[in-house]
Design goal:
Length: about 290
């Protein structure tokens, strides 16, 4: 069966999107790969683990080479499975080096990482219209998450920092909600003109999109705060989830549970909330005193 989305999808001169089916979280069904560059090309997100999608991806890469483009490397924004499912197959088939942040490489030690990119690293892509992409280390969703920003066009390739639809999961143990929100603010304040997310269409009103993400998280956190204040003797996470995420479908319940836990850990770090030995969460003693 053919893919129900258009591919390849030229987005701008020197930017082509190629979406593949991946085992990702709803509402997304695909992960976007990108070819960056007007002659020298960086391939971003070797995403799909599925053989039919890998064949299509490799045929796309081959077509770029047939057009006279120079394939330089494969770039990974972070280590999650729906972003690296084809990394080993693609680097073997194309003979290209893999590039990522050191934290990503550490989580995928079976792959031969040729370059570990840090904050501020520059990727120059020569061509008729040269591109210069700056690496921005944006942890919070994943420890080694990297975004790319093109200096002339102010386009940001943002991986899983935002999506065009829905929200981004910040999973405890892998993510950090406070750091994630700080990085969203940082990306917004760089004043980009367009966002290229890993899931969904390009985003042409970046500041408003970032502001919506920030406002939603702050609203949800405030709901958690209010619920905890109403239960000074403690409440378990399941009961708290029914209060705070009453607007979420039962199908999304497991994801809501992870998001709630991320909010609670952030509030614990802020010394607003604490978890008792009984597994129940309550506002910290100084919050209760302030309420009194």
């Amino acid at each position: 069966m053919g893919a129900p989305w258009h591919r390849p999808d030229p987005i701008a001169p020197g930017v082509v999107r190629f979406a593949t089916r991946t085992p990702t979280l709803p509402p997304a069904q695909t992960t976007n790969s990108f070819a960056l560059g007007t002659r020298d090309v960086l391939l971003v997100e070797p995403a799909s683990p599925y053989p039919d999608e890998q064949r299509a991806w490799l045929a796309w890469a081959a077509s770029l080479a047939e057009e006279g483009r120079v394939l330089r490397a494969i770039f990974v924004t972070h280590h999650h499975p729906d972003h690296v499912g084809g990394a080993d197959a693609f680097r073997r088939a194309l003979g290209l080096p893999l590039w990522a942040h050191a934290e990503t490489a550490a989580r995928l030690p079976h792959l031969p990482w040729a370059r570990r990119l840090e904050e501020g690293a520059i990727i120059d892509l020569p061509g008729p219209k040269p591109q210069r992409w700056r690496c921005l280390h944006t942890p919070g969703h994943a420890p080694g998450h990297l975004c790319l920003e093109e200096e002339a066009s102010r386009v940001q390739l943002v991986g899983d920092m935002v999506a065009s639809r829905g929200t981004i999961l910040i999973a405890p143990g892998d993510g950090d909600l406070r750091v994630y929100l700080q990085q969203l603010e940082r990306l917004r304040d760089r004043d980009p003109v367009r966002l290229l997310p890993a899931h969904g269409d390009p985003i042409d009103a970046p500041r408003a999109h970032y502001d919506r993400y920030l406002a939603h998280r702050r609203w949800r956190e405030n709901e958690v705060r209010k619920a905890l204040r109403r239960h000074p003797k403690g409440i378990d996470r399941e009961a708290l989830q029914r209060i705070v995420y009453h607007d979420v479908s039962s199908a999304a319940g497991p994801l809501a549970a992870l998001s709630l836990h991320a909010h609670l850990l952030a509030l614990q770090a802020d010394e607003f909330a604490l978890e008792g030995d009984d597994g129940r969460w309550r506002p910290s003693a100084h919050v209760v005193r302030c309420e009194d």
